[in-house]
Design a protein that fits this description.
The longest helix is centred in the first third of the chain and has 19 residues. The chain has one domain: Porin. With about 180 residues, it is mainly beta. Strand 7 and strand 8 form a beta hairpin.
C-alpha cells in the first residue's frame, strides 16, 4: 500500500515537472491551426444519455490572446426508444480568448454559435434503418473553456468543456467534455 502512494506522488511530481518544462507553447505565435478532439456529450436535445462526441476544426489567431474558430461538431446520438435514435451535428463559429499561464500552458474561454441539425432514424428489430427524418435545425449559443498544453513546437493537447443550451428543446443543455490535439502552422 505504501509503495502505491509513492508511485502516485511520483506521477504527480512528474506531471508538475512536465507543466513547468521548457517546451515551446504551440499557441505562442499568431497564425493558423487545425485540431481534432473526441469526448462525451450529455443531456443533448431530447434525451438524458451520454454519447460519444467529436469535433474537427480550424482556427485563425491574429493576436496572441485572440482566435476565431470554425469547426464541425458531432454532439452525439441517443436512443429515444428501443428502435429510434436522434443524432445532433453541425458547424460552430467561435471567438476564443487565450490566457498564457506558462510557456507550455494556456487557458482559454470561447463563445459562439452552434448551427446544428437533429436527425432521427427508426430501425427494425434487427437494427436495419427503416426511415430517417429531420427533427429540427437552428442556431444556438455555444460557450466553453479549457486548457491547452504544448507538447512540441507545433503540437498541443487540448482539454475542453463546451455547453450548448438548446432553446428549441425545452432549454436542455448539451455538456460536452473532450480531449484532442491541435497542430499550429
Amino acid at each position: 500500500m505504501r509503495i502505491e502512494n509513492y508511485r502516485v506522488a511520483a506521477c504527480v511530481l512528474g506531471l508538475m515537472g512536465g507543466l513547468l518544462a521548457e517546451v515551446p507553447n504551440a499557441q505562442a505565435e499568431p497564425g493558423l491551426y487545425v485540431g481534432a478532439s473526441i469526448g462525451a456529450s450529455k443531456d443533448a436535445v431530447l434525451y438524458q444519455d451520454e454519447s460519444v462526441a467529436f469535433e474537427l476544426g480550424a482556427g485563425f489567431m491574429p493576436f496572441e490572446n485572440l482566435a476565431f474558430e470554425l469547426s464541425y461538431l458531432y454532439a452525439g446520438v441517443s436512443e429515444i426508444d428501443f428502435n429510434e435514435d436522434i443524432t445532433v451535428s453541425g458547424l460552430t463559429t467561435s471567438l476564443v480568448a487565450i490566457l498564457p499561464v506558462v510557456d507550455t500552458l494556456s487557458l482559454f474561454a470561447k463563445i459562439g454559435l452552434y448551427h446544428w441539425e437533429a436527425e432521427g432514424v427508426v430501425r427494425d428489430r434487427w437494427g436495419n434503418d427503416l426511415w430517417r427524418y429531420e427533427v429540427d435545425s437552428a442556431s444556438d449559443l455555444l460557450y466553453g473553456f479549457g486548457l491547452q498544453f504544448g507538447v512540441a513546437d507545433q503540437v498541443a493537447v487540448v482539454a475542453q468543456y463546451q455547453a450548448i443550451p438548446f432553446e428549441d428543446a425545452n432549454d436542455q443543455t448539451a455538456a460536452i467534455t473532450s480531449l484532442g490535439l491541435r497542430l499550429v502552422f
